[in-house]
Amino acid sequence: MLTPKYEECYREVMFNVGQSKYTRASMSSKKDRIEFLEKALDVNRQLMTKEAKQAAKIEKKLKVILGGYQAKAMALCKQIEEINDQLDTVSVENVTYSKLRETEQSIIPYRLQKLQEHLLRQSDREKGLQEKFKYLLDQRKELTIEMAKLGISPL
């Protein structure tokens, strides 16, 4: 940024194109001021064109140099997104299976109790059926003996 004094001096001096020298702006004619501004505009246009060409060259070089890096960065960004998606999925699965484990752990004593009750019922039933079978075998044996006493042959 220019100092205020410098800016004031800069506004008072201008290049007189017709005389090819610097003069005071207040002493110049309107025509000289217009020529000065047109010349400044042309110089600025030429400078802009030159800088635009340089910028285009530099951009082209940067595309070549950075093209690989940009492609690699995009691939890495895609990988990061995929890993984040997997992380979200695994996180949800972890919460789900943790809750399922808690539920299963809490129900185990109830299931054991029910299985023990079922085992006891089956044991009692088996014992009862074994006793009934023994009773029936004894009955058969007695009937066979009675049939033999009566002289009837067993089937």
What does this structure look like?
The longest helix has 121 residues, at 30-150. The protein is mostly helical. It has helices spanning 4-12, 30-150, and strands at 13-16, 21-24. It starts with a helix and ends in a 5-residue tail after the last helix. Strands 1-2 form a two-stranded antiparallel sheet.
Order of helices and strands: HEEH
Instruction: Give the beta-strand count.
Output: 2
Q: What structural category do the secondary elements indicate? A: mainly alpha
Q: Biggest sheet: strands side by side, in what order?
A: 1-2
How many helices? Answer: 2
* Average residue-wise pLDDT: 88
Q: Can you give the helix content as a percent range? A: over 70%
Q: Could you give the distance between the termini?
A: 129 Å
Comma- or semicolon-separated keywords:
single chain; 155 residues; mainly alpha; 2 helices; rod-shaped
Which helices and strands, and how do they pair?
Elements: H1 4-12, E1 13-16, E2 21-24, H2 30-150
Antiparallel strand pairs: 1-2
How is this structure best summarized?
This protein has 155 residues and is mainly alpha-helical.
